[in-house]
Amino acid sequence: MKLVSLLSVLLTSLVPCMGASGQAAKPAARSVKTSKPNVIFILVDDMGWGDLDSNWSQQKLNGRTVERKNEFKTPALSALAREGIQLRRHYSAAPVCAPARASLLLGVHQGNSRVVRNNRFDHPIEDSHTLGTVMRDAGYDTAAIGKWGVGGGGQSQVAMTAGPHQRGFNYFYGILDHLAGHFHYPSESRDVFEYNGYAPNPEWKNIKDQVPQTAYSTDLFAARAKQWIVDQRKSARKTGKPFFLYLAFPAPHGSLTVPGTPYPSGGGLKGGLQWVKKEGTESVNTAFDVKAEKNKDTYIHPDNSHFPNDVAKRHSTMIRRVDDAVADLVRLLKDLKIDDNTMIVFTSDNGPHNEGGSDTRHWHGAQNPQFFKSYGMMDGIKRDCWEGGMRVPALVRWPARVPKGQISLNPGQFHDWLATLADVAGVPVPARSDGVSLLPTLTGHADQQKPGIVYAEYNFAGKTPEYKDFLGEHKGAQRGQQQIVFVDGLKGLRMGVKDADRDFMIFDTLNDPQESRDLASSRPELQARMKAAALSNRRASLPSKTVFDSTPVPAVDVKGTVSPGLQWSLYEGDFPWVPDFRQWKKPASAHGVTPSPSVNMNGPARRGVELTGYVKIPEDGAYTFYLTTDENKGSKAFVRLHGMELIDADKTYEPGTEVSSDLGDRKNPVYLKAGLHPIRIGYVGNSGAASRLVLKWEGPGLPRQDIPASAFIHGKESR
What we know:
Elements: E1 8-13, E2 38-44, H1 75-83, E3 85-87, E4 90-91, H2 97-106, H3 131-137, E5 141-147, E6 171-175, E7 193-196, E8 204-206, H4 217-239, E9 243-248, E10 275-278, E11 281-284, H5 285-289, H6 310-335, E12 342-348, H7 387-390, E13 394-397, E14 406-408, E15 412-413, H8 416-425, H9 439-442, E16 455-463, E17 478-487, E18 490-494, E19 505-507, H10 525-536, E20 558-564, E21 566-572, E22 590-594, E23 600-604, E24 607-617, E25 621-629, E26 636-641, E27 644-649, E28 658-660, E29 670-672, E30 675-685, E31 693-699, E32 702-706, E33 712-717
Parallel strand pairs: 1-23, 2-9, 2-12, 3-14, 4-15, 5-6, 5-9
Antiparallel strand pairs: 3-13, 6-7, 7-8, 10-11, 12-13, 16-17, 17-18, 18-19, 20-33, 21-22, 21-24, 24-30, 24-33, 25-28, 25-29, 25-31, 26-27, 26-30, 31-32
Helix pairs in contact: 4-6
C-alpha cells in the first residue's frame, strides 16, 4: 500500500498569496508603509560582539559587567542602534566564515547544510532557496556586492557552480574566493568580477585590470553599492521594484590593511564615496585620491591614533571605515527619500579573529582581541563555540516599522534571516528553512515571537586562547568536534566530542554569558533531551563527517490516545515553493485525518497540504526514504523527520521523478532507533489532474517498498 496516495485534487480558481506577516505591527514613530521595503543586508568579516560600541551601553542587560579600558567609537552603527533595535543574543551559524555565510544564504543551520560545513572554504553551496532567490522571486531587484566565498573555485579546486548569479542575484560586483577577503587592495593579487544580469548579453567579467591598485576594498564595494542603488531607483520608476542588496565587506578581517586617504566629507548623493570614471577606468573616488603607491595602507583615523600599538590602530580604523560607509549609505537613502521604508540589517560572520591574514605585502601582525575586549563580556574568539566566538553584533533599522531604541535579549541565529526577509517581502517561508521570522521581535511584538532553533556544529583541531581574562577552565580548552544546542532557553555545549554519549555542559547564557556556571549537575533531566536534540535536528553531510553521524536518533514517547493515519491541513494560496505551513499566517481552510493517507481537495488553482504525525520504525538501523510526486507541472514536496531535512523535492525537483533521502549520488542513510518518529510532509500542487505522493523506505530486513499505512499514527508527544 502506498504511504500517500494523496490529493485527488480539482483546482479551479486562484487565491491570492498572503504574506507571512499577516498581522499589523504597532506603529513606530512614522507611519507604516504599505509597499514592500527595500532591504540592505550588511555582513562584515570577523567583527567581534565587543567591537560594536553600542553593545557596551546598559551593561546590566548583558548579564555581566566588565571593564573596557580601551575603546573606539562606531558612531554610525551607534546611530543605527538608537534608531532601531539591537539583537544582543544573535548567533552566527558557525564560529568561522564559510559555513556561517552558507547557512545565512541558505536559511539553514549547520546541521542541515549539505555541502559547506566546518572548514570547506570555497565549496559551492547547493542549488536551493537562498536570500537571493526568495527576494528575487518576491519581485525584488537583487544585488550581491563584496565577498562571496561559497561558489566554487579558490581553495576548493572545484568548478564554480554556485556563483551569485546562480543563487538569485541579478547583479554582482566583488571577489569570489575566500582568500580574496584577506587582500584589502584586491587588485594586487586577486581577481575582481562583475556580472550584470540586466545587460543585453549578461556575462561574467574579470575586471581586475580595471581596478586601480589604490582602490581599498571597503571603499570600492561601498561606492559600487551606492551607485547600484542610485541606478536601481532610476529603473524602479518604470518597474516599481524594490531592491535587496547583500553587501559583504571583507573588513575587519586580516590582513590588517588600512586605506590610503581619509573618508571623503559629506555623504549620500553628492558627497562621501562616489563612483567615478577617470583615467580610463571606473572606480571609487578615493582610489584616485591616493597620490602614490607608497601612500596605500597608511591612513589611521585620528580618533584611533592614540592607541599604543599599530595593530590596534589598524583594527579600529578598519571598523571605523565600515562605520563611515554605513553613515554614507544612510545619507544616500535620505537623499533619495527612501530612508523610511528601507530596512538595514548589520551583522558579522563570527567572533573576533586573532590572525594576520594572507597578504604578505601588508603584513602588520595578528589582531589581539584582548586589547579592545572584542569578545565583550564573554570568553572565546573565532573558531570557539563559546559565546565569544558565536555571538555577533546585530542591528536592524527600518524607520517605518522598527521602533527606536529597542534591545532584544531573545536568542536568534543566522538561519532566521531568510525566514524574516520572506516575511518582510510577503512570501511564504520555504519549508527547507530552519529559521523563524524575527519580524515580531523587530516590530515591537516580541510577545508574538515564535521560538526558534539555535544549533551549531564545528570541528577544528585547535585550542581556546589562554587570554588572561578568560576563565581558567576555558583557557587552552581543546576544541575538536564542538556542538551547540539550546533546550528550554539553556545552552548545551560540548567540545572534543568523540561520540554521541558525551555529556553537555549547560549554561544560562542570558545571565551568565561567560559560561562560568555549568548547570549540568543541577539539571540532569536536560542531558537526555539535549543529546536527543543534537541528533534529531541534523543530517549527516558526506563531505563533512562527524563522530555522531551513525548514532541512531532516539524515538519519541507519545502520551494520550494515538490513532492511525496522519493529520492533514489544507491551505489556500499560489505557493511558489513548498512553504513552512507553521509560519503561514492564513489559517487552514480544512482539516482531517487520512488513514491511507489520502485527501481530496476541491477549490482554487493551486493549494497546499501539510501532513503531520509519526512513522513507526520497526527496528534499529539505517534507513533510506524515497518520494515521488505526480507528474503535474509545479508539483513539489518537502519532508522532515524530527527537525532534520529528510527529502527535498522542492526547488530543483522534476515532478514525477523519484528523489531519496540520500540528498545526492552517494548513500547517506538515516540512523533511527525503533519506535515513533515525528514526520512532517508539505505538498503543493498545480491545477488540473489528480495529485499524489508516494513515499517508500528500505532498511533492516526491508527491501525498497511502499511504507504501509499501518506505520503511521498521530497523537501528542510527551515532551
